[in-house]
Amino acid sequence: MILNYIWIFFFVVAFVVAVVQTFLDHLGVWSEIMNATFSSAKTAFEISLGLTGVLSLWMGLMKIGERGGVIATFSRWISPLFVRLFPDLPKNHPVFGSIFMNISANMLGLDNVATPLGLKAMKEMQELNPKKDTASNPMIMFLVLNTTGLTLVPLGVMVYRAQMGAANPSEIFLPILIATYCSTLVGLIAVCIKQHISLFDRVILGTIGGLTLFIGGVLLFFARLSTEQVSLYSSFAANGLLFTLIIVFLLAGIYRKINVYEAFIEGAKEGFKTAVTIIPYLVAILVAIAVFRASEAMDFLIAGITRCVDALGINSDFVGALPTALMKPLSGSGARGMMVDAMSTYGVDSFVGKLASTIQGSTDTTFYILSVYFGSVGIRKTRYAAGYGLLADFVGIVAAIGVAYLFFH
Question: Which of 166, 203, 214, 287 is the most exposed, fewest CB within 10 Å of its CB?
Answer without folding.
Answer: 214
